[in-house]
Amino acid sequence: MTDFDCKHSPRPELGRRSFITCTAVAAGVAATGGFADARSKSPKDNAAAPTQPAADTAVPIQALEEKRKFMEEAAALATESVEKGWGGPFGAVIVKDGKVIGRGQNRVLLTGCPVYHAEITAIMDASQRLNPKALLGSDYGAGTILEMIPREPGSPDLVPERAKMLKGCEIYINGAPCPMCMSAIYWSRISHVYFAASLEDTSHIGFDDAFQYADFKKPWDQRSIAVTPNFERDVGLTAYRAWEDKKDRHPY
Ligand SMILES: [Zn+2]
User: What is the chain's percent helix, strand, coil content, to nearest 5?
Assistant: First the structure.
């Protein structure tokens, strides 16, 4: 059974339990069905969204009118999640060539899944829109997000080419990304991040992302969560060897 064999309803309002039992990937794909409502909201509907930077933050990005529109949509998705009790006040949209290709909103409360963050689901949404067959493991070709492109000139990357992923896309997030989502953005090769509210703003409403950034800078043995590095390293490396030995592997 693959992640996409899940037959549960893609509409969260039709079944709360269904989202809990889906895998994160399937849930991310399914989530695309639930983002239509926020798109139709006007900017004034977003008045309650936390898009205004606090006085103690850096100067906000001077968004052009079009870019502001994308941020407003991210905020609308976030506000919808709050109003419907689906999760925290976080929404994201991914834009390619001036068009929205992915939407996500925090649905941690709806799903009971702690990693159901807006940016993650927006990335899943965009990926499946741009490359639906890849979700079945069958489309690595030109024009897909798994198309190989050469590394940038001067890049220290040891691999000569990588999958394009979401290179060239922008992501608009109504609040600063947590480290998990920022990592997801790196993996996606998204080219530009626009976020509105700061990490400090997020802390002020009770979400503790900021300490995670600080924790990541510490050595393994000083993290706030116990970490045992290199535990049974040889066992882990068996899969690495399988990857290295795979003649037709598709690097990404
Ligand atoms: Zn996050």
Answer: 45, 10, 45
